[in-house]
Amino acid sequence: MRATMQEDFIDWIWRNRLFEQQELTCETGETLEILNPGIRNSDSGPDYFNARMKIDGMVWIGNVELHVKASDWLRHKHHYDAMYENVILHVVHEPDAIIYRKDGSRVPELSLRNRYQPDLLNQYLDLVQGAAHWIPCERLLQDVPTLHWHNWLARVMTTRLQQRCLELEELLHQTGNNWEEAFYRKLAAGFGFRVNKDPMTMLAASLPLSLIRKQAEQPDYCEALLFGQAGMLQPDMRDYYGRNLFGHYQHLKKLYGLNPLAPHLWKYGRLRPANFPTRRIAQLAALLQKTPSLFSTLVHCEEINRLKDLLKSEPDGYWKRHYQFDEEVPQSTAAIGPNSIENLIINSVIPFVFYYGRYHGLSGISEKALSWLERCLPEDNAILRKWNSIGIHAGNALESQALLFLKREYCEHKKCVNCGIGQYLLNSK
To answer: What is the reported pTM?
Structure first.
């Protein structure tokens, strides 16, 4: 079955002026001249802002809304939304409805039907809605120059980091603009990795960094705070170390008025023992004791190898013989591994350093964060292995992060006309 047209197609045609613009008329017969198509709006509201149109000789400045069918205006309930009262042109393919403003005036309407080359729609449908593939353009990727891929992935990664800046802005606000506290929460979430990210986030939010710093010179007290607040210390623990931490935590809990997390929040299933949340919390505790003002140290770091050294941590004693409390195992290293350090750099350190540079207007620091990404190895997961199988290989972490974002935000939603690769393929036909 042939797939149908989507609004993205109308947007592509409008944005790139791929329609006949001579002797334009609105559906009600007024002459129309497009002076400026407007600025694309990526948030809620009309599709284009600050457009300029000359309608029957009069210049209008306002917004433009796009739809496949004019009746989509009603289906989307725009007639109830005040943001659409300043629409000066409704651009559609099918003029199947008459749209009025609240004051009773009709919204001028331009139909693009029969105003573009028929092959354009065929190209769009072939790319976006053809035979099923992992990504829409999978069978055409060999036609895209390598340099174009590199340039587009760099732009995608910048967009991804800018998006993360919004998340970090909220985190900074929550911590009263305390950069060390905000970074500590982001770092703790990173130590949870994918499986225990949420409870680690909750743990850090419930246990201020200032309390941990007060115990920085007493490793067992620092661990008592983190493990106790995680809900992992119980009065019936069998070994001395656990009972000792429990006793410390009971004192600290009363002193600071703490309420621990529920133990059931932590996940152990399908994890290698080295990735158990107990081991990760012990590593986080060791790192926080090793470098109390960690973020200020990291943000002024220059070399990626120095950055990796700063993030190395290994709990002493007990955790070399345990993956969790009360279960002794043969002695092994408890240090955080190099792959985990790179994961923390990619997902916790670099976004925060990039945001710090943007926040303070220090472009050199933001550029340094991007250069660190280029010096980190690409990640290895199912999505990136699939990219490899269709001939797209990430050379570093910047490109692997961009490919993950590209797949999730563009390919899965078939936003080909907004993608640099899709635009190249459409424009090169």
So the answer is: 0.77
